[in-house]
Amino acid sequence: REGRRPLIAGNWKMHMTHLEAIGLVQKLVFSLTEEELDAAEVVVLPPFTALRSVQTLVNGDQLAIGYGAQDLSAHDSGAYTGEVSGAMLAALACGFVVVGHSERRSLHGEDDAVVAAKTQAALRHGLTPIVCVGEGLEVRQAGGHVAHCTAQLDASLAGLSAEDVTRVVLAYEPVWAIGTGEVATPEDAQEVCGALRSRLAERFGPDTAAVVRILYGGSVKAASTAGILAGPDVDGALVGGASLDADEFAKICRSAA
Ligand code: PEP
């Protein structure tokens, strides 16, 4: 993996009140050793309403896990009812924010232009965007998955410099694998993650491509983690359902360490 530290990020989606979040983070942290947390970067992505509680836990106990949000506004402030800005997330000391998750793309009409604007907003506020790309089932069956994902990468990173891109994490999340229990094979994950890295090298240079972490996401469980992460271009996992179970998520983190 050429020195890239594995990253395991748990996307809780719309689960967990702030009180439940406290319990889950405490359980998670107590089941991981310092060495394991050193070997792999572990990040939780709770709903906005739980971020303050997670911040208090993490700062108070010097726990070595990171946290972040699942979305942010493309705007820095203003009349955008219901939105949350990058500045607000930075004020809560978030390290990460997911951008362009397929559920945001499909349920909230976020296109690549919106995703690019949100990626830039995250970087403006010192947050690491986890930029998601991934094909649907029809595209996969027609064999267009690599072209689809590299085109999404191009459009989602529009306007960024090579230096900006070194501060981005990418996530390959095939839509047909998200929440379906159908995990991609290690070969499928490597094929697309490798193609994304090649595309980064073409557009931003090999040095930039070599440092960007590329995650796989889609029905990852403890049992499938080691196989998926064996791919030389797969630097970690974005985990949905399995991140809500502290024991299972800890096992995933351990397999990556
Ligand atoms: C996700 O939502 O990013 C995800 C990968 O979900 P799941 O692990 O539940 O498929």
TrEMBL record:
<dbReference type="Pfam" id="PF00121">
    <property type="entry name" value="TIM"/>
</dbReference>
<dbReference type="InterPro" id="IPR000652">
    <property type="entry name" value="Triosephosphate_isomerase"/>
</dbReference>
<keyword id="KW-0963">Cytoplasm</keyword>
<feature type="active site" description="Electrophile">
    <location>
        <position position="101"/>
    </location>
</feature>
<protein>
    <recommendedName>
        <fullName>Triosephosphate isomerase</fullName>
        <ecNumber>5.3.1.1</ecNumber>
    </recommendedName>
</protein>
<comment type="subunit">
    <text>Homodimer.</text>
</comment>
<keyword id="KW-0312">Gluconeogenesis</keyword>
<dbReference type="GO" id="GO:0004807">
    <property type="term" value="F:triose-phosphate isomerase activity"/>
</dbReference>
<keyword id="KW-0324">Glycolysis</keyword>
<dbReference type="InterPro" id="IPR020861">
    <property type="entry name" value="Triosephosphate_isomerase_AS"/>
</dbReference>
<comment type="pathway">
    <text>Carbohydrate biosynthesis; gluconeogenesis.</text>
</comment>
<feature type="binding site">
    <location>
        <position position="179"/>
    </location>
    <ligand>
        <name>substrate</name>
    </ligand>
</feature>
<dbReference type="InterPro" id="IPR022896">
    <property type="entry name" value="TrioseP_Isoase_bac/euk"/>
</dbReference>
<dbReference type="GO" id="GO:0019563">
    <property type="term" value="P:glycerol catabolic process"/>
</dbReference>
<dbReference type="GO" id="GO:0046166">
    <property type="term" value="P:glyceraldehyde-3-phosphate biosynthetic process"/>
</dbReference>
<feature type="binding site">
    <location>
        <begin position="11"/>
        <end position="13"/>
    </location>
    <ligand>
        <name>substrate</name>
    </ligand>
</feature>
<comment type="function">
    <text>Involved in the gluconeogenesis. Catalyzes stereospecifically the conversion of dihydroxyacetone phosphate (DHAP) to D-glyceraldehyde-3-phosphate (G3P).</text>
</comment>
<dbReference type="GO" id="GO:0006094">
    <property type="term" value="P:gluconeogenesis"/>
</dbReference>
<feature type="binding site">
    <location>
        <begin position="240"/>
        <end position="241"/>
    </location>
    <ligand>
        <name>substrate</name>
    </ligand>
</feature>
<keyword id="KW-0413">Isomerase</keyword>
<dbReference type="GO" id="GO:0005829">
    <property type="term" value="C:cytosol"/>
</dbReference>
<comment type="similarity">
    <text>Belongs to the triosephosphate isomerase family.</text>
</comment>
<feature type="active site" description="Proton acceptor">
    <location>
        <position position="173"/>
    </location>
</feature>
<dbReference type="GO" id="GO:0006096">
    <property type="term" value="P:glycolytic process"/>
</dbReference>
<comment type="pathway">
    <text>Carbohydrate degradation; glycolysis; D-glyceraldehyde 3-phosphate from glycerone phosphate: step 1/1.</text>
</comment>
<dbReference type="InterPro" id="IPR035990">
    <property type="entry name" value="TIM_sf"/>
</dbReference>
<feature type="binding site">
    <location>
        <position position="219"/>
    </location>
    <ligand>
        <name>substrate</name>
    </ligand>
</feature>
<dbReference type="InterPro" id="IPR013785">
    <property type="entry name" value="Aldolase_TIM"/>
</dbReference>
